[in-house]
UniProtKB/TrEMBL annotation, chain A:
Function noted in UniProt: The pyruvate dehydrogenase complex catalyzes the overall conversion of pyruvate to acetyl-CoA and CO2.
EC number of the protein: 1.2.4.1
Protein name: Pyruvate dehydrogenase E1 component subunit beta
UniProt cross-references to NCBIfam families, sorted A to Z: PRK09212.1, PRK11892.1
Keyword line: Lipoyl, Oxidoreductase, Pyruvate, Thiamine pyrophosphate
Annotated source species: Brevundimonas terrae
Keyword Oxidoreductase: yes
From TrEMBL, chain B:
Enzyme Commission numbers on file: 1.2.4.1
Spans through the membrane: none
Xref: PANTHER family: PYRUVATE DEHYDROGENASE E1 COMPONENT SUBUNIT ALPHA (PTHR11516:SF60), PYRUVATE DEHYDROGENASE E1 COMPONENT, ALPHA SUBUNIT BACTERIAL AND ORGANELLAR (PTHR11516)
Stretches assigned to the Dehydrogenase E1 component domain: 35-332
Name this protein carries in UniProt: Pyruvate dehydrogenase E1 component subunit alpha
Cofactor: thiamine diphosphate
Subunit text: Heterodimer of an alpha and a beta chain.
Amino acid sequence: MTDILMPALSPTMEEGTLTKWHIKAGDTVSAGQVIAEIETDKATMEVEAVDEGEVLEILVAEGSEGVKVNTPIARLAGDEVAPAPKAAEPQSQPMTQTEAEAPVQAPKAAAPAAKPTAELRDPEIPADAKLVKTTIRDALRDAMAEEMRRDDAVFLMGEEVAQYQGAYKVSRELLQEFGPQRVVDTPITEHGFAGLGVGAAMAGLKPIVEFMTWNFGMQAIDHIINSAAKTLYMSGGQIRCPIVFRGPNGAASRVGAQHSQDYSAWYAQIPGLKVIAPYDAADAKGLLKAAIRDPNPIVFLEHEMMYGIEFDVPEIEDYVVPIGKAKVRREGTDVTITAHSRMVGFALQAAEKLAEEGISAEVVDLRTLRPLDTETIINSVKKTNRLVSAEEGWGRMGVGAEVVASVIAEAFDYLDAPPLRVHQEDVPLPYAANLEALSIPGVDKIVAAVKQVMA
Amino acid sequence: MAKAAVQKSSSEQGEIRIPNTPQASKEDLLRYYREMVLIRRFEERAGQLYGMGLIGGFCHLYIGQEAVAVGVQESVKQGHDKIITGYRDHGHMLAAGMDPNAVMAELTGRAGGSSKGKGGSMHMFDVPTGFYGGHGIVGAQVALGTGLAFAGKYRGDDSVSFVYFGDGASNQGQVYESFNMAQLWKLPAIYIIENNEYAMGTAIDRASSTTELYMRGASFGIPGEQVDGMDVLAVRDATARAVARARAGEGPYILEVKTYRYRGHSMSDPAKYRSKEEVDEVKKTRDPIDHIKMLLAAAKVTEDELKAVDNEVKAIVAESVQFAQESPEPDPSELYTDVYVEA
């Protein structure tokens, strides 16, 4: 007997829906035959048989949702002599991916960023505002759609943003609403289309340039820095560059060093740029709307692992979050943890764990890295007297280094312990699952750092 | 589907598409002469000011290439079309109609400069004349200029983007990324390759596997032609044809303009990579100002008329030098302005 297992469509997929069976018990299948269709929230795929033999039993019924990867879904009568396959080697594999080849976001159930029980209600959101569960992916899409409705000069360009509906489905349905003139599929030519976007911005348009990931944006870094960030200054204020560069940043899952990098510190060093790295869907929406309206060049860092996570988004007409303001996500008295993007979720989970041990941690979500809201950070440290910074990127010359330096310069006398930084290990990101987990910082490292500054 | 119609100049093609002798009125010729002489005198004085320590950093002079910017400019609808170039940009700015005082004062780093002294030789801009820089990274202006063309097409305003770059930049990857998108989307971009034969100190045949730069758009289906860049009328007419296509929605065009740079790459050029005889030969036989003087003589323009233009230009340049020296340095408070537009 051979079990056919639920296959993974992508590196980050953990479960999916078994939408259709093409076979039934008693059928004989041959290797390569399409036997089923599965889908996640962004992709659909046909599954083909690897082995041949008679179908003994369908184990998971058509239409089942939330089927975990590697769950046996059907059983074949096979060659009894062959060794049984190990569970980690799925007996099915993708034949045709009808959707993105880029990693699919893990569904909500697998979300690493649990909503903390003690999270503060955002004072910017009116108490009577209705909150709607929205994924970050859809919040970003809604922000772009609202701004494109509001201003004809706003357009989106990038690889696969139009007909494909976005490599990560962030631009889903924008082509249908706004047409190919305003939702522009580009060739794979980051340096060229980033430069083209900057030129269009100089001429008064308001481009949103999507990089499929910020790793590919590195090909375009000359235009982001030399052309977009500096021209206002070099022209004595004459030439504006109202452009948003956006896309997923940071580590994905098991995609290796070239596709897993946090560019926060890189861009946050550049005068002339504003750099935004939101954590939840409300901020993703409100800050992206603010970014599109801002007359300056913006680097907008989304997180590859968070697109599918749902958060409350206020149902408010024109919800705009101001750029440059950090947000205290959880109040505490013993230690301040600063974080941005996905690390905010880990910091909140760490705070929850620490609370169980009697340590009260305050979590400051930086939200914008340039300009950095040092006032909120310093006010927090003046209250807690201890600081741990957390970031996904490398530590040296990093965001945490800047946070710590600001606190030391302006609140040194308030510190009861040397601040600590939590960050990725100082190596390129490895592929092996165990090494990758060792390299990327998470809840445990934050908890350990807090305990060290509390010691 | 337009085939990749790379064409040589009309005479080499063996058919006559335009009159062999370009026509120009006496008034037009005098205007071209004035613009070209203005650039040359301006650049000569800039070189002197550099030697006196009044201009710092890099300073790339346009002497020898005057007919290119002046000839192209005849097709520019000022304030409607867009112009963009690299770091050898003084000539394009003057041809575009920028105030010589503001250009010279930018060279001296003064408050009266077009960028308030914060840009320098390679970074000047002027929205009213459609001049979008002045870019110091070789090849960057090609992608940016393609974006200016994109904006024109997006708005449907029939504007054209004039994108200048050199034989050196023509080997940058982003040039071809831009060509691809420009032709794919039929953008109104005129790519003007000023082939002055040297990329800094490297002769074109030492850096380029093919030296026929007008053919560089062939694999994208962008037509191109070679133009005598020392003949202002040839540049003018070739540009006019390319612009007519672009305004009609037929997409980009490449003009490889054969020209020559008399001075060094920048002020610190060792001049070891070419002989003095080579430079002298071009000056003697191909000088663009000598060429238009012949046309002016044929049009019966008198020495007195030329002298009047020369004197007018001399006065303009002298005034710009005075302005550039008397304009104060930028106020220290300017250090922190223009980093961001206040939202």
